[in-house]
Amino acid sequence: MKLTLDPGAAALLDALHAAGYAAYAVGGCVRDSLLGRTAHDWDLCTSALPQQVMELFGTEQCIPTGLQHGTVTIKYGGQLYETTTFRTEGSYTDGRHPDEVQFVPDVREDLARRDFTINAMAYNAAEGLVDPFGGQKDLQNGLLRAVGEPQQRFTEDALRILRLYRFAARFGFTLDAATARAARQLAPHLDCISAERIQEELAKLLVAPQPGAYLEPAVLAVVLPELTPAALEAAKPVVDACPAGEENLPVRWAALLGTLGEADTRRVLKRLRCSNACIEETAVLVRETAGEGVCGSFLLGHEFELRHPTDASCLEQHSHPAGRCPNSNSLFPPQAAVVAVAGHSIARPTACGSRVPPQRTVLGETPAHAPERASDIHLRRLLGRYGLCTVERLCALCAALRPQAAPACALAAQRARQLEADGVCCRVRQLAVNGRDLMAAGIPAGPALRRVLEALLDGVIRAEYPNEKPALLAAAQKIIAS
Q1: Residue 346: strand pairing partners
Q2: Nearest to 77 by CA among 55, 61, 65, 58
Q3: Tens of pLDDT along 165-209?
Q4: DSSP label of 142
Q5: Which of 25, 276, 279, 376 has the fewest Cβ atoms within 10 angstroms?
Q6: What is the pLDDT of residues 31-41, one digit of tens each?
Q7: Which residues, at least 6 apart from 295, have a Cβ–Cβ distance to it below 8 Å?
Q8: Are 77 and 8 in contact (CB under 8 A)?
Q9: Does pLDDT of 442 surpass 80?
C-alpha cells in the first residue's frame, strides 16, 4: 500500500525520521487518501516528545498548541501541521476530555485510543499502512465501527456519538450494529457537550449529501428536543431533497426546523450558538415558505399545483373565510381572486371582489402577458427584499417541500438570476431618483420620504411608470398629494 503524501507532511516526517524518531501521517488524511479523496488537513504523530519536536524544528516554526496533551503545530511551507506525541489517555471525568495522558513509544497504542477504525490508521513511506483495527477493510465495506468497545469509546467522549452520524452521513456508510446500539443508548450523555460543539457537528452532518437517514431520533431528542419525532420523520426527505454543501446549510436548517415556525427556529439556532447570519437567513426561509410572506403564496401556491381553470368553483374555494383552499396546503388571504400564471392559478387579493372579469387579470392585462408579469413582480419583490442568494435558496427549499413544483421552482430561480444579471430595478437604490432628488422637488425629509421611495419602487416593479427621473418625480408629487 503506497499513498501520496502531502509534500510538507513528507518533509516533516523525513526530518523526524532523520532525527531518530518514529513518525506517521495519521487519522483523517490517511482515511481520505485511501478513499481517493483530497486530504486537506495532514496530522502527524510521532514518538518525539513535544519539547523534542520544538527543539528539532525551532521555536520560530512551532506553536505550542497543547503541550499538556503532546501537541505541537509546526509551520512549514505556508501550512500548519498538527503533530502529536504517541499517547494513551486516562479517565474522562467530564465525558469530553481525558484527565491525563501518558506518552508511549508505540503508534499502535496511540491508535487504540481513537474513535473509529477508519480514523485509526497511520502511514509513512517506509512502513506503509499501519492498520491494527481493520480500518481499511471497513472503508472498503462502507462500514463505520468504533475502535474496541463502543460503550467505552462513547462514555469517554460523548461528542463521538455525533461524530459517528456525521462521518456516516459524509461518506454514506452503514453503521456497525454494536456501535449504533451503544450510540443510541448513551445519547443522553450528550447533555454534557457544549452547544457550540453540538452545533458544529450538526452543521457538518446536515451539509452531507443525504443526511436524512443519519438523523437518529434518540440523538435528536437530546440535542433538538423542540423537534417532535413525527416532525423529524416528516423533515428527513425534505432535508435530503435540499441541495448539499456548506453554502446551503440555512436551507437544510430550514427544512429540518421549518415546522417549528420562525420564532422557535430562531430560538433553537440561538441556543445552539449559530452565527447571526445563519439564524437570519434560516428564519427568512422558514417565514417565506410557511405562507406568511410573498414566497409562501407564490412558490408554494396554486400556480404550481392547480390544473383547473379560473372558474367560479375555484374562486369560491379561495374565498373561504379561513383562507385555505381544500385542495392545497397553502394559506391564502380571504376574498382572493385567481390569476392565471404560467398556465396554472395563483390566488391574489383584489379589492374588486372574488371574481375576475373575462379575459382580464387583476393586474389589468390579458392572459397572454400575465404569466411573465405576475412572476416577475413576485421575483423582483423577493430580490429587492432579500437578494439573489436568498431567492435561489427559497426556490430550492420550495422544490424540496413540493417535489411536483421542482421544475417550476428551477425556472423561477433561473428567471431571478436573469433579472439580477440584467440589472432590472428591484431595490430603492436602483431607482432613477434618490432622496436628494425628492427633497429638491419639495418633498420633506423624514419617514414620508422613505414611504414615497418605496411607493415609487412598487410602481416601477408593477410597470405603472418607467424607471426614469421625470416620470418618477411626477409620480412622487401625485403620491405625496394623495
Answers
A1: 339
A2: 61
A3: 999 999 999 999 999 999 999 999 999 999 999 999 999 999 999
A4: T
A5: 276
A6: 999 999 999 89
A7: 288, 289, 378, 382, 394, 398
A8: yes
A9: yes
